[in-house]
Amino acid sequence: MDACRPPSTAVDGHCRLGTTDDRPARPPAQSRSAPIPVYDRGPMPVYLDHAATTPLRPEALEAMLPYLTEAFGNPSSAHAAGRRARAALDEAHERIAARLGAGPREIILTSGGTESINLALKGAAWAGKARGHRIVTSAVEHHAVGHSLAHLERYGFEIETVGVDRYGRVDPDEVEAALTDRTILVSIMLANNEVGTIQPIAEIARRVHARRGVLLHVDAVQAAAYLDIDVKALDVDLLSIGAHKFEGPKGVGALYLRAGTHIVAQQQGGSQERHRRAGTEDVAGAVGMAIALELACAERPASTARLVALRDRIRGVLTKLPGVELTGHPRQRLPNHCSVVVRDVDGSDVAMALDLRDVAISTGSACTSGSNEVSHVLAAMGYPDEEARGALRLTVGRTTTDDDVETALAAVGEVIESLRAGAPAAATAPAVAGGAG
Fold first, then answer.
1. Is position 367 annotated as part of the catalytic site?
2. 7 assigned to some structural domain
3. Paired residues of 20 in beta bridges
């Protein structure tokens, strides 16, 4: 019997899939492809939520395009197409490493900041389990850290959480006091995503490494775009970044792993990333991330002054409004980041009303947007629930203009006044061509 099934589909020794000798061939299917719908908001909105994500830089997109089209080879393949992809991937490792003060072999490409954090914490925890089971962190970490550690806690790891002051700063003395002979890992973020506070990582590292064998992981996802990062100067063992926070593509990130530091891989499969992270690498994403990081670092000296000026303009206007208080450290904070609490209003109501006016801001972490829970960051900083619900976060970026800021500030003031007066904020929104969608 012919190997093809059913037998009637064998013609001239070949299998004709989808037809039989006694059944007419099915007519060609109608194309079901259609353009992806575009959400039309009319005029370009004012975007002041760069802490959530940033627009993809044209230079990064241009560098990515060849690896999304003709140079599509798998970097693990030995043929010419694979070698071209491998060369691009190796160069991306080198460029990213150079901007972090690391070696190319110390960079592990991941699917983003969250995976980088998961790999760092879970990988280091399981690798060090024979030596101890205690992990120290802070009360204001991103959920990627908090939830990863909660997962580890279910498997017998002991999680010790140190508090912060009113500004969201971690005291290195408290970190040191939390260390014991059973401690194997400490995870403290470089800069907070909700309030922008910068942590004294170098001093924390000095205390941590006074204990032999204790590793320090740093979540630098929010900081990488705006702060100079040198992993050797900071003296960290693991450090996580995500490309879309510095105008790179979404879905790609990196983990710095100090040479000689052992982790247990968290996904199994191939031998990619030197057996530390299985799965075919996103070559285009890695290329885009490398270009975006290079440009962000090269432009930082000039861009920081402009971002600080825009941030301080926002801060100056908002904190003059009745019942508005700056959150986070007044000086040790990211240059693009302004966060406040507005008393007697709900921050979500303000953000929604501003969205109707084509002004995009947030109430805090985009990862918890829509949740009814009060920010764990503001709670740790001592804000009662009723005040924390009034949180607003306005973050600027390279593409933000002076006009954007002025438009947003005028709208914020009007919306807050309207909400406090009890009038529906939407009723005061100007008509927008094309509607709100």
1. yes
2. no
3. 23
Residue 182: name the closest of 213, 210, 204 by CA.
213
pLDDT at 436: 32
pLDDT (0 to 100) of residue 21? 42
259: phi then psi, degrees, rounded to nearest 5: -55, 135
Residues 277 and 351 in one domain: no
How would you classify the pairing of strands 253-257 and 238-242? Answer: antiparallel
- The pLDDT value given to residue 8: 36
Long-range CB contact pairs, 206-212, < 8 A, 24+: 206/172, 206/235, 207/172, 207/173, 207/175, 207/176, 207/179, 208/175, 208/176, 208/179, 209/235, 210/176, 211/179, 211/183
- Domain stops at, among 239, 262, 294: 294
Burial class (CB in 10 A: 0-12, 13-18, 19+), 406: middle
Do residue 134 and residue 256 come from a single domain?
yes
The pLDDT of residue 422 is 84
Asked if 276 and 84 touch (Cβ cutoff 8 Å), the reply is: no
Domains contained in the chain, number: 2
Range of the domain at 159: 58-294
For the chain, 437 residues long, the average pLDDT of each consecutive 10-residue run is 37 35 46 57 82 98 98 96 97 98 98 98 97 97 98 98 98 98 98 98 98 97 98 98 98 98 96 94 98 98 97 98 97 98 96 97 69 87 96 98 98 96 56 36
Distance CA 188, CA 124 (A): 14
How far lies 358's CA from each of 56, 103, 315, in Å? Answer: 20, 44, 20
Q: Are residues 311 and 270 in the same domain?
A: no
- Residue 256: give its domain's CATH number: 3.40.640.10
Instruction: Answer yes or no: do 82 and 124 share one domain.
Output: yes
Are 195 and 340 members of one domain? no
Return the pLDDT at 370. Answer: 52
Structure tokens at 257: 């792993």
| Identified catalytic residue from 15, 297, 338, 367 | 367
The tokens for 61 are 């997109």
What per-residue confidence (pLDDT) applies to 372? 64
The DSSP 8-state label assigned to residue 163 in this structure reads -
Q: What is the predicted pLDDT for the residue at 163?
A: 98
